[in-house]
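Example for tutorial group B:
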């Protein structure tokens, strides 16, 4: 049941639609790719509100992106009438940190530099395993993952428990908000994860128990049907959904092999294509989700382009790695 009025989002929707003018466009991305140096490439981002950089190194780029992400969530959280929509996008960072905490505890490795400090909960507390500092659902998942890793010694299976808990929290949060758009967006993410899992597991000859544990519930495509699907049957499961093209590519990969680049891009583009519906919505939670998703995609594009420029990767290879943009 819808628990909000669309007009509750009138002010924030107007503000975010206005901010869309500063999003990285395809033309700007092309300019970045064609720039002579990484520093010249980065200058384009000043038009999007990024902080200046003296030297364009991987470390400095990551710092700039982290700062931009923190500012994004801080600024939008002040505007929205319901902060749960922000949390929907932050959950994945909490569980990323939970995986790091698990790894650190098992190996003794210092993982603090890999932590993401833009989740719902304090990253350092999550790294220290302070379950009292997180949600009840996440606390249970961290305890189960630790138990699994301690019992079997298999960190991979423990991480799969955290992945499942992450998407279960996202699904529950979207349902609590009563937004069909958000519920369908989370379900689409789950379908994309499961489709990727299917392709990778079958190509790697993954054990059945690991494969089954990796498949997530909560998508529009039943995980049980997807597990054994190939060829035309696989294509039929994704036909008429945003993952239509990705499903056809997955079927070809499982039947004939080949590279994963085009398939991975099709999965990501399906999610962006869904979010683009928010551009045609005057006001509502859709606009907030669309903008947050657009910015997250922008951060990924910036990292892809600048890391490629720094590494001296050819322009056409960088272009091949880029995904669909929001604008």
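The residue assignment follows.
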């Amino acid at each position: 049941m819808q628990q909000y009025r669309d007009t509750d989002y009138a002010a924030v929707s107007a503000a975010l639609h206005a901010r869309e003018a500063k999003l990285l466009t395809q033309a700007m991305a092309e300019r970045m790719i064609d720039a002579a140096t990484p520093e010249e490439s980065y200058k384009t981002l000043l038009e999007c509100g990024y902080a200046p950089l003296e030297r364009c190194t991987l470390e400095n780029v990551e710092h700039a992106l982290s700062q931009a992400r923190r500012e994004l969530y801080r600024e939008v959280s002040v505007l929205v009438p319901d902060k749960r929509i922000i949390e929907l996008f932050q959950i994945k960072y909490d569980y990323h940190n939970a995986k790091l905490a698990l790894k650190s505890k098992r190996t003794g490795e210092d993982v603090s530099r890999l932590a993401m400090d833009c989740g719902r909960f304090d990253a350092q507390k999550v790294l220290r395993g302070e379950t009292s500092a997180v949600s009840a659902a996440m606390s249970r998942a961290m305890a189960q993952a630790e138990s699994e890793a301690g019992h079997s010694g298999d960190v991979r299976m423990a991480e799969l428990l955290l992945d499942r808990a992450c998407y279960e929290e996202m699904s529950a949060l979207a349902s609590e908000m009563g937004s069909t758009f958000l519920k369908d967006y989370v379900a689409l993410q789950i379908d994309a994860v499961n489709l990727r899992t299917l392709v990778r597991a079958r190509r790697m000859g993954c054990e059945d128990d690991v494969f089954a544990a990796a498949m997530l519930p909560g998508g529009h495509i039943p995980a049980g049907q997807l597990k054994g699907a190939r060829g035309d049957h696989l294509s039929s499961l994704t036909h008429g959904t945003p993952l239509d093209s990705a499903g056809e590519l997955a079927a070809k990969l499982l039947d004939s092999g080949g590279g994963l680049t085009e398939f991975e891009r099709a999965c990501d583009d399906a999610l962006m294509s869904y979010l683009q519906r928010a551009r045609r919505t005057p006001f509502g939670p859709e606009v907030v989700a669309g903008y947050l998703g657009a910015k997250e995609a922008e951060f990924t594009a910036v990292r892809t382009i600048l890391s490629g420029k720094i590494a001296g990767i050819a322009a056409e290879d960088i272009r091949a790695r880029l995904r669909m943009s929001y604008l």
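Residues 285-311 form the longest helix (27 residues). Compare this with the pattern of hydrophobic and polar residues in the output above.
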